[in-house]
Amino acid sequence: MVIRTLCIVCCCLLLSTAVTFAAPQRTVTDQLGRQVKLPTTVQRIIPLGGAARYLVYLQAFDLAVGVEAMENRQPPASSRPYNLAVRSRADKLPVVGEGRGKPVNPEAIMALRPDLLITAEADRAQADRLSSITGVPVLALNYGGRGVLKPELVIETLGLLGSVLGREQRANRLIAELASQQRELERRLSGVKTIPVYVGAISQRGSHGITSTDADYYPLEIGGALNLAKKLGRGGHLYIDKEQLLVWNPPVILVDASGTELVRQDLARNRDFYNRLAAVQTSQVFQTLPYNHYHTNLELALANSWYVAKLLHPQRFSDIDPTRKTDELCRLFVGIPCYAQLQREFGGFGPLQLQTRSADGR
After folding, report:
1. 113 — phi, psi (to 5°)?
2. Which fold has domain 176-351?
3. Whether pTM exceeds 0.85
4. Other Cβ atoms within 10 Å of 165 Cβ, number
């Protein structure tokens, strides 16, 4: 009788313990189509592979308990406004890996007892393996390819994370604002004739020169331009031959500010090439902000879109100051103005003075 009573008591205690410590769970589908079980309330997150950006966008970086070295040991850069906005907090967080696709430290992750890992660079196998090794659910995001901005995926990402993190209201605001920005640009540009443009020096895992371009460059897509790189029939980031640029001979050339110095160095070696470009001859070379730095910074991509639209169709945008628009967008997405820092670091928007003659006039 005593033994039976003890068994009943033990069973009750076990059931009680299970009820006390089994956290409620839910299942969500991440952007790789994986079914992920995670706590109903997420309180401790480690963002990987550039996912910290979306925590900042959703005003949820306070949930981060660890970061990659990319977020607190690399020098802060204005081309990643999200990092500038939370750098003081990020500097105090433990490091779980280097970032940029390098392996993480599973032991460091497990020591921090996160509820959830969010990654923006893993494929299905990598995400499954990371979850298996650490015992922590992994939610995988999809940026749409390195350096490629797909608004539909941004909206999907914001909606997914807004639901997972309990930041639905914030996510809905950003989704609505993105749609509003695109609609307003479309309205102002209705009926305009697109202008052929070449954009060069696009950053891709580092800075590159004039032959680095992007056939899907978002600011040209919505800024009233004809992206000449599309004529090659390939999408995304690509490199062209210099001769191809001479064949196109665009009336307007844009240079990504991250590669401006490389363009100047190339100019010093190849003055004859640059002198043959109509855009150089007519001073129609302009600098844009770098928006691909550890994946896409949406606020800077939008800022570039407004600048390009005004540059190409000034009569439709006489009321728009691109520098103020940049600060407006940075405040919306990351909570701080950023144009002054971008100007100090990269020179900001404006004509790019390519000196095509040597000092002795040759």
Report:
1. 50, 55
2. Rossmann fold (3.40.50)
3. yes
4. 22
Both tokens of 82, joined, read 């999200």
CATH number at 25-167: 3.40.50.1980
Choose among 76, 68, 151: nearest CA to 336: 76
Beta strand residue intervals within the chain, DSSP E: 25-29, 35-39, 45-48, 116-119, 138-140, 195-200, 212-214, 225-227, 237-239, 252-256, 285-288, 350-351
Tokens encoding 172: 């809905």
- Residue 307 contacts residue 322 (beta carbons within 8 Å): yes
Q: Measuring CA to CA, which residue among 352, 324, 362, 305 is closest to residue 151?
A: 305
Whether 137 and 117 have beta carbons less than 8 Å apart is answered as yes
Structure tokens that stand for 219 in this block: 């600011």
pLDDT, tens digit, 9 for 90 and up, residues 226-278: 999 999 999 888 999 999 999 999 999 999 999 999 999 999 999 999 999 99
First to last CA, the chain: 108
d(CA 358, CA 29) in angstroms, rounded, equals 59
